[in-house]
């Protein structure tokens, strides 16, 4: 789920947006959370490759 469940407040806002039929807001929040999760994954991958070389 791309880490959305790890941010309870963001999940609340997404659920509220669906509850009020604000699909545009829900889509933006999901896209932002996906971008943040994928960015953090890319940074951690680069750091792992830099500091833990292949053996």
Can you describe what's shown?
The protein is an all-alpha fold and 55 residues long. The chain has one domain (4-44). The chain contains 2 helices and no strands. Helix 1 packs antiparallel against helix 2 (23-51). The mean pLDDT is 83.
Q: Structural class from helices and strands?
A: mainly alpha
Overall pLDDT confidence: 83
What general form does the structure show?
rod-shaped
Extended strand count: 0
**Whole-number radius of gyration?**
15 Å
What's the end-to-end separation, in Å?
32 Å
Total domain count: 1
Approximately what portion of the residues adopt beta-strand conformation?
under 5%
Which regions have little confidence, pLDDT < 50, spanning 5+ residues? Answer: none
Helical proportion, percent range: over 70%
Q: How many separate helices?
A: 2
H/E element order: HH
Sheet having the most strands: none
Sum up the structure in keywords.
single chain; rod-shaped; 55 residues; mainly alpha; 2 helices; transmembrane; membrane; transmembrane helix
Give a quick rundown of the structure:
By secondary structure, the chain is mostly helical. It has helices at residues 8-19, 23-51.
């Amino acid at each position: 789920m791309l880490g959305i469940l790890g941010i309870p407040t963001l999940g609340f806002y997404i659920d509220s947006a669906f509850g009020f039929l604000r699909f545009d807001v829900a889509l933006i929040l999901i896209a932002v959370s996906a971008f943040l999760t994928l960015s953090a994954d890319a940074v951690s991958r680069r750091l792992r490759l830099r500091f833990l070389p292949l053996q």
